[in-house]
């Protein structure tokens, strides 16, 4: 789970922001894109898995961990701008 979170929370947003710099010239729009991509996953998958009766422990740990990690990763992604 940890390598995926690092990839999802740091590497993927940085790569997308660097690619989108070629297409988006407005710094406000690029900054908004960077913040939205860097946000942690939502709770909808957890709600759906609970409704379907699936195991939710690993999913809820991932959501909590990604929310805590985003405190540090969002500023890192914003530094790339």
Description:
The protein has helices spanning 2-20, 27-38, 44-52, 57-80. It is 79% helix and 0% strand. It contains four helices and no strands. The chain has 81 residues and is mostly helical. The two termini are 27 Å apart. The mean pLDDT is 87. It has one domain.
Core attributes:
79% helix, mainly alpha
**Total of domains:** 1
Give the C-alpha Rg: 15 Å
Task: Bin the helical content.
Answer: over 70%
Span between N and C termini?
A: 27 Å
What amount of the residues lies in strands? under 5%
Question: Which runs of at least 5 residues are low in confidence (pLDDT < 50)?
Answer: none
Q: Element order, helices and strands?
A: HHHH
Helix/strand/pairing class, anyone? mainly alpha
| Average pLDDT for all residues | 87
Main β-sheet, in a few words? none
How large is the count of helical segments?
4
What is the general shape? elongated
Annotation, overall tally of beta strands: 0
